[in-house]
Design goal:
The complex is a heterodimer of chains A (115) and B (113).
Chain A: E1 3-7, E2 10-13, E3 19-26, E4 32-38, E5 44-52, E6 55-58, E7 65-70, E8 73-78, E9 87-94, E10 105-106, E11 110-114
Parallel strand pairs in A: 2-11
Antiparallel strand pairs in A: 1-3, 3-8, 4-5, 4-9, 5-6, 7-8, 9-10, 9-11
Chain B: E1 4-6, E2 11-14, E3 19-25, E4 32-38, E5 45-50, E6 54-58, E7 61-66, E8 71-76, E9 85-92, E10 102-103, E11 107-112
Parallel strand pairs in B: 2-11
Antiparallel strand pairs in B: 1-3, 3-8, 4-5, 4-9, 6-7, 7-8, 9-10, 9-11
Classes of the chains: A mainly beta (115), B mainly beta (113).
Chain lengths: 115, 113
Amino acid sequence: SQTIHQWPATLVQPVGSPLSLECTVEGTSNPNLYWYRQAAGRGLQLLFYSVGIGQISSEVPQNLSASRPQDRQFILSSKKLLLSDSGFYLCAWSNEFRTPNSPLHFGNGTRLTVT
Amino acid sequence: QKEVEQDPGPLSVPEGAIVSLNCTYSNSAFQYFMWYRQYSRKGPELLMYTYSSGNKEDGRFTAQVDKSSKYISLFIRDSQPSDSATYLCATRTGSSNTGKLIFGQGTTLQVKP
């Protein structure tokens, strides 16, 4: 069966510090990968998605970047965090390649607090 | 206007009640519909996934889609305190391979023992 791992679960970082959040998927190949941010009372906002290695699409302009160095690895980064980057970051995957229009499956998220 | 509208609640019901959660959407190109359950400090978990208009049942859960009204619902029968969570509706067009979903804001449900 497929599993998705996301770490760390919580993170407290000072303003101006760098960020690296990692997500890996097991049990599948060629997944579509996604980074979402969830702010309180504001629903899920898609930040980045990737349909393959090295292929990154950005949905909103922001202080963050994403990379996909391997098929089942997705990384969310920032060179200098802002207070507004605080939030709950969720990684997700879908099996779009094998099963078009398949749903997304989420990891358990990273709660980031920028102080 | 948001593409998917969902009343954030909170919705509080007694244990055993039938719960009705609803979303409306504006884009008739949306073809696939999902309901996710999210417990506090956890990621969303897929509950129901449906394509066609009509009902889909899974245990105590029933998803209903009315494409003519652009209205989707999730019914929970015999609600339990463990059903207390935030419920998110989501949809997509199915016209590309990006797999991007459009989410509602989520409805917070509390089932009281």
